[in-house]
TrEMBL record, chain B:
UniProtKB keywords: Calcium, Cell membrane, Cytoplasm, Lipoprotein, Membrane, Metal-binding, Myristate, Nucleus, Phosphoprotein, Protein transport, Repeat, Transport
Organism: Clunio marinus
GO cellular component annotations of the record: cytoplasm; nucleus; plasma membrane
Phylogenetic classification of the source organism: Eukaryota, Metazoa, Ecdysozoa, Arthropoda, Hexapoda
Protein name as it appears in the record: CLUMA_CG008381, isoform A
Transmembrane segments: none
Length: 521, 189
């Protein structure tokens, strides 16, 4: 190497360059965590502002300090850091702790909202913005069709990070929660496809290649690939994780790593093909959970739980702080009407979409979604960091409006995180939305509810109708016969949940007994 | 086939069933066509064997109990269409405003309770509970474990200290469960 020959042996030297990257990353994480402690020590602010908006404020302050103190200003929130490092932990946490039953009971409504709802939003928001552009509302700036629809495709999707951040704090009832949250997870496939479709059409048009009918058909077909491909990759990796943990009974300490690494590989594996990584990691978590939980030790389970919570909550913290930091830069292009109209269209079409789709869903639902539910659903349509990362991915060289899109996306995110985030708590209280009551099931609930499931499946068979119970019954039978015997080490009957509830309650009793009678230990 | 079966069902019969159960005429006709397709011997009633011929039902762990709850009230072990409809009426969705007697929360719970309570003494004994647990959980599990689960379940629910679960205990234990939704089928029109 080109080392200088030292004249004397130095007592000490400074070499920041060597540790720069990990050092800066660590400082960011430290800052975010300290900010988080700070909010919880200030109870008054905490009640009014949701945590996500406080983090953005801290981010903006840090951004301003950096902006004034250094001449180079590079935002730390790049699409790559976001999609490869910050997003996966949050989605894995959501998928792994997903209430599976609730999710699949409401899957029809969730899919309707995620697929049809997102397409509806893209077409209506894109169409309206395009028309407004044609009428010259935006001070005569040129608004090409594909550019506007590219923007519409990224701004239309409800964001899982923002939804989780806001809804975790307000504890609405479980059905409302799963519908909004499920939508935000599953709409990723639609977002990814529409984004890539408009991006590719744009590139083709830019290079004077004619977009043909074939390309549109291909777009529809690619949706099927992205959605199902993502799900299948996730399910396969989920089964593999179950299979691996079957053999870990002698190496308990590495059990948690399999869950994290294999889920992450599922995400990356899907991203290789540009399939939906979010769907892959969600379904990986959903699939592996039942098998992994049966195989691993109690302590490994606790480790997985807390490590996942820690990873996802710090990712979330960093994302919101980075969003704040990224706001402070030189490249803003402000266009009042474009920004206001985007926010208005996002909100209005969200409400219209929810009303139409819920009316459709309610025809098939036993538990109807009420007017208040519909309001919370439309209000819960928060936009967040996924949109921001996608807008940064647009190439400013080909899409002239990119800086305007970035500014607008930031405004929409601020609008949803601040205005909707702050008001949703009091609104939920005023409208008297049913709140969630989280408690572990009692022995009686576990047994009788299982009993009712079997009974209802039988009745559906008699009536000759394929319903939820029927389908679940078939799946359980399949699982018990063909999957569980291969993935689980010590198989315990056909009703592992009943046993699980029993052992949990027995353990609780034992702890209680020890607490009361410390002398016997 | 749907046409033929609806012809066999007289207007006044439909009206009567509608009155008793709250089903719409369309739903009644649809269920009647299902009923006749289950009735292999074409005698207007269903026997135990007719139920057991439904392949999915036959492998349901609670199959015997479900079939029993249909034919328990008849004296010749056969169920006619009216009785069939009265059982199913319990699983209609509850609509706000127009409350029907048969599909109230209490009726739904009572139906489930009766499926446990084989000897009709208005309580679920330890043996009755064990019986059900055995059907649901199946092999691969020790009798001791099932015993302690049943023991714990009874102790948890039993408020009166009788060592058995009464209907009141049963309702109390399922207080937090959304029975209205869980025990409803959306019958097609």
């Amino acid at each position: 190497g080109g080392h200088e020959v030292p004249e004397r042996y130095p007592i000490t030297s400074i070499d920041f360059g060597r540790v720069e990257t990990p050092f800066i990353i660590s400082v960011w994480i430290l800052f975010a965590s300290i900010a988080k402690i700070g909010f919880h020590m200030a109870p008054k602010i905490n009640k009014v502002l949701p945590e996500s908006s406080l983090l953005i404020v801290v981010g903006v302050i840090i951004g301003l300090i950096l902006y004034m103190s250094t001449q180079f200003h590079v935002s730390p929130l790049t699409p790559n850091t976001f999609f490869l490092y910050l997003l996966p932990p949050i989605i894995l946490d959501a998928g792994y702790f997903m209430p599976n039953r609730l999710f699949f009971d409401n899957i029809g409504t969730i899919l309707l909202m995620a697929v049809i709802g997102t397409i509806f939003n893209v077409t209506t928001i894109g169409g309206s913005l395009y028309l407004c552009g044609k009428m010259g509302v935006f001070n005569g700036i040129e608004t090409p069709f594909l550019d506007i629809f590219l923007f519409a495709s990224l701004i239309s999707a409800v964001d899982p990070v923002a939804v989780l951040a806001v809804f975790e704090e307000i504890h609405v009832n479980e059905i409302l929660y799963i519908v909004v949250f499920g939508e935000s997870l599953l709409n990723d496939a639609v977002t990814v496809v529409l984004y890539h479709i408009f991006e590719t059409y744009h590139v083709m048009e830019f290079n004077d290649v004619q977009v043909q009918v074939q390309d549109i058909v291909n777009g529809v077909l690619s949706f099927i690939c992205v959605a199902f491909g993502g799900c299948i990759i996730g399910v396969v990796w989920g089964f593999l994780t179950g299979l691996v943990t079957r053999f870990t009974d002698h190496v308990r300490v590495i059990e948690p790593i399999f869950v994290f690494i294999m889920a992450y590989l599922a995400y990356l594996n899907a991203e290789i093909f540009h399939w939906s990584g979010i769907l892959a990691i969600t379904f990986c978590g959903i699939t592996m959970k039942n098998y992994v939980e049966a195989n691993i030790s109690h302590k490994s389970h606790t480790t997985i739980k807390y490590a996942l919570k820690m990873l996802s909550s710090s990712s979330e913290t960093i994302i919101f702080m980075f969003l704040g930091v990224a706001t402070v830069n030189n490249n803003h292009e402000w266009n009042t009407w474009f920004i206001i109209l985007t926010i208005v269209f996002c909100s209005v079409f969200r409400i219209i979409g929810v009303i139409i789709l819920v009316a459709m869903a309610n025809r098939f639902r036993i538990h109807k979604l009420s007017k208040v539910d519909q309001f919370v659903m439309s209000y819960g349509g928060l936009r967040g960091a996924v949109a921001f990362a996608l807008v940064l991915l647009i190439d400013p060289a080909t899409v002239k409006l990119q800086p305007l899109f970035v500014t607008t996306t930031i405004c929409v995110i601020y609008f949803t995180v601040f205005l909707q985030g702050i008001t949703i708590k009091p609104l939920v209280r005023i409208l008297n939305v049913k709140r969630a009551e989280k408690r572990k099931p009692t022995m009686n609930e576990r047994i009788h509810e299982r009993f009712i499931d079997h009974m209802m499946a039988g009745l559906e068979d008699i009536v000759g109708k394929t319903g939820n119970y029927n389908v679940r019954d078939k799946f359980k039978r399949f699982d018990n016969r063909f999957v569980r015997p291969y993935l689980i080490r010590d198989l315990q009957g056909a009703e592992p949940k009943i046993l699980e509830t029993y052992s949990k309650l027995a353990m609780k009793d034992a702890m209680e007994y020890m607490r009361r009678n410390p002398s016997t230990v | 086939m749907g046409n033929k079966s609806s012809l066999l069902l007289r207007e006044e019969e439909i009206a009567q069933i509608q009155e008793e159960t709250g089903f719409t005429p369309k739903q009644i006709e649809r269920l009647y066509s299902r009923f006749t397709s289950l009735d292999r011997s074409d005698c207007g009633t269903l026997s135990r064997e007719d139920f057991l011929r439904i392949p999915e039902l036959a492998i349901n762990p609670l199959c015997d109990r479900i079939v029993h709850s249909f034919i328990a009230d008849s004296n010749d072990d056969r169920v006619n269409f009216r009785q069939f409809m009265q059982v199913l009426a319990r699983f209609r969705t509850i609509k706000k405003g127009k409350e029907n007697k048969l599909n109230s929360r209490e009726e739904k719970l009572r139906f489930a309770f009766k499926m446990y309570d084989l000897d009709d003494d208005e309580t679920i004994s330890r043996d009755e509970l064990l019986n059900i647990l055995h059907m649901m959980v199946g092999a691969n599990i020790s009798q001791d474990q099932l015993n302690s689960i049943a023991e714990r379940t009874i102790v948890e629910a039993d408020q009166s200290g009788s060592g058995k679960i009464t209907f009141e205990d049963f309702c109390k234990a399922l207080e937090r469960t959304d029975v209205e939704q869980k025990m409803s089928i959306r019958f097609l029109n």
